[in-house]
Amino acid sequence: MQKIRVGVIGVGRGSGFARGAEHVGMELVALCDTWEERLRKLGKNLGVAAYTDYDKFLEHDMDAVVLANYFHQHAPFAIKALEAGKHVMSETSACFTLAEGVALVEAVEKSGKVYMFAENYPYMLFNQEMRKLYQSGAMGEFKYGEGEYVHPMSADNYNRISPGINHWRNWIPATYYNTHSLAPIMFITDTLPVRVNGFVVPYDPGDHVHFGKTVRRSDLASAMMVRMDNGAVAKLLKGSLRGHGVWVRIHCSKGLMENLRHGSRGMVRVRKEPFDKSDNEPEEQIYEPKLPEEHIRAIKAGHGGGDYFVTYHFAEAIRKGEQPYLDVYRGVSMSIVGIQGYRSALQDGAPVEIPDFRKVEERDKYRNDDWNPDPTRRKEGYPFPSITGEVKPTEEGLVYARKIWNDMGYEGK
Fold first, then answer.
1. How far is residue 164's CA from residue 58's CA, in Å, rounded to a whole number?
2. What is the dihedral angle through the alpha carbons of 51, 53, 55, 61, rounded to the nearest 10 degrees?
3. What does the buried/exposed string (b/e) look like for 273-312 if buried means 16 or more CB atoms within 10 Å of the residue's CB?
4. Which of 153, 269, 314, 318 has CB atoms 3.0–4.6 Å from 89's, for a disulfide?
5. What CA–CA distance (Å, rounded) separates 179 from 175?
6. Between β-strands 64-67 and 87-90, what pairing exists: parallel, antiparallel or unpaired?
7. Contact, 75 vs 101, CB < 8 A?
8. Strand 4-9 to 64-67 pairing
9. What is the model's pTM?
10. What is the pLDDT of residues 125-169, one digit of tens each?
11. Among residues 142, 198, 223, which one has the least CA distance to residue 354?
């Protein structure tokens, strides 16, 4: 197996990729982060070079870069890596503005390097099983789907993963982190989004967990209705509502597929009506999908096997010299649903198009569109992170958050 030398940026979330690289024939050679204490510690534990300067990191002798840095900073880092001749795997959001989406697509095309969008939820076992069923033709044509990623947490845990007043988790709008909901639907059905209607459950100053003990100033949750390119409709729900759950439901012309909401959520339920099924088919099946034997270790890698499979498919794409399924076009497409969904939510759900950046004429419309809610980049006409307008952290929340940050060794603002 060809060894692929890889560097990882981001020693928080990125530590999982760093430790898992060897399982897919990658050799970790370098790490990069600005949190120097954690960086040096992980670099020493793994026996690799450690950099606080990204440009110096890119000069290291390696083939590929894994980006696990902040949500809103991926595209510029990816473009630099591509220009430096590195293959790129990028987490969470491919781009933070439509202009970045255009620039990223063109950088990948120009470089000839592999780009993979590291969205791990499609590779959970139940989603892989539903894709297999759909691709076999047994379920017919995709008509309607639902994707849910609801993830509440305690104030202490929230503060630990979002150190700093301007950490992205403390201000990112409720629609933006949408790919865990949308990506499985796109993966299962091979469809792309073309239009979105966005709705937001607004910021609640009376919520003692989310806002009384944190510096968060974005909204609680979002629901988006997305028209897909085959005419189907998908509903996306994500945010910090009570009731943790990850759920995917796919209605097709010949039946229904979903993972279970209760009990073992990794199990798949397939339902067919009597008039659609063959004589030897049951009306309903509930079962646990099986992994190929060689991939049993994937479960131990995290996110229901997803973390293993994104890295595996990235490595395979490099070896084969071809783009992976979750390529730059799909990555950018699902990422900008969150951006356009927020535009829609600010217009109380008015429909907003999702441009297809495979087409140059579509890119030209958005080449200079840098509209974004980043508080550090604010300009006239740019949105606040909440649909209610500007929200400022409370003194109570700031004091509580700083106590957690100090305990974990974070000394920034």
1. 27
2. -10
3. eeeebeeeeeeeeeeebebeeebeebeebebbbbbbbbbb
4. 314
5. 10
6. parallel
7. yes
8. parallel
9. 0.95
10. 899 999 999 999 999 999 999 999 999 999 999 999 999 999 999
11. 198
CA distance 51 to 32: 5
Tell me the pLDDT tens digit for each residue of 165-210: 999 999 999 999 999 999 999 999 999 999 999 999 998 888 877 7
Q: Report d(CA 353, CA 145) in Å as an integer.
A: 19
Q: String of b and e for 196-230 (b: at least 16 CB within 10 Å)?
A: bbbbbbebeeeeeebbebbbbbbbbbbbbbbbbee
- Structure token digits, residue 288: 């646990």
Nearest 5°: phi and psi at 322?
Answer: -140, 155
